[in-house]
Amino acid sequence: MTQRTKLELELNKPTEIELLYDECVSGNSQYGDYYLYAVKSDGKEWSFFPNEQVHFQLKTLRRGDKAVITKLASQRGNKIVTTFDVQVNNKVSVSAAAEPEYINDTNEDKYTDRYYEVILQSYRDALKIQGKLNGLVDVNKIAITLFIARSK
Q1: pTM score above 0.85
Q2: Cβ count near 53 (within 10 Å)
Q3: CA 129, CA 142: separation in Å to the nearest integer?
Q4: How far apart are CA 86 and CA 16, in angstroms?
Q5: Integer angstrom CA distances of residue 29 from 3, 46, 71, 138
Q6: Whole-number pLDDT of residue 6
Q7: CB 39 within 8 A of CB 2
Q8: What are phi and psi of 13, to 5 degrees?
Q9: Are 66 and 18 in contact (CB under 8 A)?
Q10: What is the structure's pLDDT at 93?
Q11: DSSP 3-state assignment of 66?
């Protein structure tokens, strides 16, 4: 097996990755479940260990598919919380601090009311704001504020 250097994402820097294989290697270690992807970024091959929510977005991709991942940090009280912005085929989803978005969920049709779309767009916009302010804002507070303003 080829040894690849571990890909470490820089804060607030979008990193484009291209999958080298159709599936990842998954397993369990003393630190919990892990997912290992062989990826290409900036012309080099890397080993990438995403968290579970980022893995959920990447597992639908196949060899040669690309995604752009941005590591974001926000302060919540005294803690710094890391989140990831994953863009797959121009779809943006939030992970790490939120529940995973199930893209292929067959029950998605039941969420067709206006408020569902408004809250999703509010979270997307809140992530953009957080990225522009270098992660110094609380995504949840911004999203809820936007949702309240938009739903009046």
Answers
A1: no
A2: 20
A3: 8
A4: 10
A5: 19, 20, 24, 32
A6: 94
A7: no
A8: -120, 110
A9: yes
A10: 52
A11: strand
Q: Report how far residue 82's alpha carbon sits from residue 99's, in angstroms, rounded to the nearest whole number.
A: 14
* Angle (deg, nearest 10), helices 114-132 and 139-150: 140
* Number of CB atoms found within 10 A of residue 108's CB: 12
Helix, strand and coil content of the chain, in percent to the nearest 5, comes to: 30, 35, 35
Q: Comparing C-alpha atoms, which of 88, 151, 97 is closest to residue 122?
A: 151
- pLDDT tens-place values along the chain, 152 residues long: 578 899 999 988 999 999 999 999 999 989 889 999 999 999 999 999 999 889 988 988 999 999 999 998 887 788 888 888 898 864 555 554 443 334 444 444 555 567 778 888 888 888 888 888 877 888 889 889 988 888 77
Place of tokens 């479940």: 33
Determine whether 77 is exposed, middle or buried from the number of CB atoms within 10 Å of its CB (0-12, 13-18, 19+): exposed
- Identify the three-state secondary structure at position 132: helix
What is the rounded CA–CA span in Å between residue 118 and residue 89? Answer: 21
Which among 43, 47, 45, 6 is positioned nearest to 24, based on CA atoms?
Answer: 47
Pairing of strands 44-48, 66-76: unpaired
In the block, residue with structure tokens 């270690």: 29
